[in-house]
Amino acid sequence: MKHAVKTLIVCAAMAFAGQVPANAQLGNLLKKAKQAIENVTGKTEAEGQAGQAAASVAIPSGGTMQNPFSDAADIELVGAYGKSTSANYGTVYLVLKVTMKANESRILFGGEINGAKTMAVDQDGNAYVTTAFGQFPKDVVEGVAVKVALDGKEEQFPDVKKTAKTLQQIRLGCHINAQNRGMITFKDVPVQWDVQPQ
């Protein structure tokens, strides 16, 4: 009997000696659960609110884009156009072609979404933001390509240096519906100064 009690005490001591604090065990458990979910779904938090990874697609006018909402809308950048406002500065606006896949008749662009602002950065690292906080509604038609110009005063990037020949990155706010809202990213987009979109 004494031998059994001693064995029980030794086993209990060994169990307590190797015990990890409960909060550390919970953290490890959560990490393992997150990895298991990512392995099963193939998705990570970096993929955005739309729930899918955005592949880079070439833009016909130059550059690439990442549209995390491609299941809901095909969005093509027609171009980035600059309008001179002085000898050295101007405004830059975007022209898009939008084909809705979702049953929506309106899409919102620009402004700030989830704390991220619509923003452009030129080849020299100069950053430009639009003056709007909200998004601007644009009428669209399901299954039909509609040209959308973001050329309203608050939709444009103001005070852009005319030395900006390329916008190395543009983040554009997009709100289709509650499940599809966030940022579309364009990279290495040429700026066409004082040219009218076709």
Overview of the structural elements:
With about 200 residues, the chain is α+β, with helices and mostly antiparallel strands. The protein contains 2 helices and 14 strands, in the order H-H-E-E-E-E-E-E-E-E-E-E-E-E-E-E. The strands form 2 sheets. Strands 1, 2, 3, 4, 5, 8, 9, 10, 11, 12, 13 and 14 form a 12-stranded mixed sheet that branches. Strands 6-7 form a two-stranded antiparallel ribbon. A hairpin with a 4-residue loop joins strand 8 (about 120) and strand 9 (about 125-130).
Secondary structure topology:
Elements (H helix, E strand, L loop, with lengths): L1 H16 L4 H20 L14 E3 L5 E3 L6 E12 L4 E12 L5 E4 L2 E2 L2 E2 L1 E4 L4 E3 L6 E4 L5 E6 L6 E5 L4 E12 L2 E14 L5
Parallel strand pairs: 3-14
Antiparallel strand pairs: 1-2, 2-14, 3-4, 4-11, 4-12, 5-10, 5-13, 6-7, 8-9, 8-13, 13-14
Question: How would you concisely characterize the structure shown here?
Answer:
Helix content is 18%, strand content 43%.
Relevant terms:
198 residues, alpha+beta, 12-stranded mixed beta sheet, two-stranded antiparallel sheet, 2 helices, 14 strands, 43% strand, globular
Oligomeric assembly: single chain
Main beta-sheet strand count, sense and barrel state: 12 strands, mixed
In sequence order, what are the helices and strands, one letter per element? HHEEEEEEEEEEEEEE
* Structural class assignment: alpha+beta
Strand content: 35-45%
- Structure annotation, total helices: 2
The total beta strand count reads: 14
